[in-house]
What does this fold into?
Amino acid sequence: MTLPTAQIGIVGGSGLYDLPGLTDTAWTTVDTPWGAPSDQVFTGTLPTPQGGVRLAFLPRHGRGHRLTPSQVPYRANIAALKMLGCTDVLSLSAVGSLRADLPPGHFVVVDQFIDRTVGRAASFFESGLVAHVSLAHPTCSRLGDHVQTALGAIGVPHVRGGTYIAIEGPQFSTLAESRLYRSWNADVIGMTNLPEARLAREAELCYASVSMVTDFDCWHPDHDHVTVEAVIAALSGNAGNAKTLVAHSAPGIAADGHGPGCACRRALDHALITAPTA
Ligand code: ADE
It folds into this structure.
């Protein structure tokens, strides 16, 4: 079966299960060498004066939110977007805030990660093929520029740059953990983005992580401890802003002539260590 094609992949987190306003749409089952992605992939054309931008949307937890952060098939998700021809990936997810000046409703264009997950499949390289890609700068600053410009244009409060601590979950953190992460200068806390950033780099995709604050985790003396109820309440506003962000940033990303020269797209040039076979 011929797969639809797209240039920009969108991985949507909790509360983001579709993208409105696209034409020529389809939900497509994509089989990858790493198994099935979280769900079918929704592709469509975002109308623009230049003739449209092809988008591929993948709900990270599946429609209906069926998959825990530990169950998300991160390799299949990134592989599926690559197989559809995506060169750029925007990752959108709900996070807790570890900073008093980042209240719910703020977006953070994350550029660093700390890993507290355990046992997640976090590499495409195994079974006799070894590569070590650089993760010093795990997100694409070119994509970050587009996202930052779009957030400014649509008036969503945001900061550029921030450290995302990825926990295994599914439980939220203890107070001692939350305080520890603050002492490490982490800015936001979530359960999904780091495996994605790693795999996108290995797949030579440009990747930007947009974290949407829903709560203050449990460290803030003046705020209740995070609950699913509070996260869902904050998510509805954030999801609308996330969709507007995609619509505003995609045309610039698609038109950016610097994309093909981006270092993210050559991540494997100096990363393979396995000797070539004769
Ligand atoms: N996602 C949204 N809020 C969170 C929190 N406080 N901890 C981990 N993941 C989250």
